[in-house]
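Open question from group meeting: does this chain pack into something compact, or does most of it stay loose? Before anyone orders reagents, we agreed to write out a predicted structure and look at it together. Recording both the input and the output here so the notebook holds the full record.
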Amino acid sequence: MGTLLVVAWQRYLHSLGKRPLITKAITSGTLAAVADVLAQKMGGAKHLQPKKSALMAVYGLCFGGPTYHFFHKIMDRVFGAKTDPSTVIQKVVVEQLTFGVMYNLAILTYRAYVVEGLTWAATKAKVRRDYWGVQKQGWKLWPLVAFINYSFLPPQLRVLFANVLSIFWVCFLIMRSKVATVKDR
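Structure tokens returned:
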């Protein structure tokens, strides 16, 4: 088993080196689908809804992975590869006030409009109602993730690290959405 994991990791790193954007997009899509399946199970679903998981995979593939990939490229251009505490804190603040804000808005909107199939008016109302609470919760988790990312991980692994932790974040968002939807009825 250990050898299999080593070979899989080596192949992943090879793919990441040759096709970083595609590799990150596919990884993000896969992990978004995993998060959705976990959230459905945690929410007590007796039968999985594969369409919802597939739509979350599309989100990760087309938006999550690519935007995070390009965001880190921009951050590397702006700040370089410095990992001193002052630079890392600047990176964390910039990420949380730009990418984090935009990402949470995007995923809440996508989840409501595309995955849940709400009307545009209902989507706007839901996002307006939920956004600030989600953002505040995000600021409890993501600054630490960003700090670890910028301090200890090589640039090519930053998206993977965030994607793995996004499994828990997406589960939180989906579960929060379910609770809010139940309360609305």
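Observations to bring back to the group:
Residues 120-152 form the longest helix (33 residues).
Helices lie at 2-18, 20-42, 50-79, 85-97, 99-115, 120-152, 158-184.
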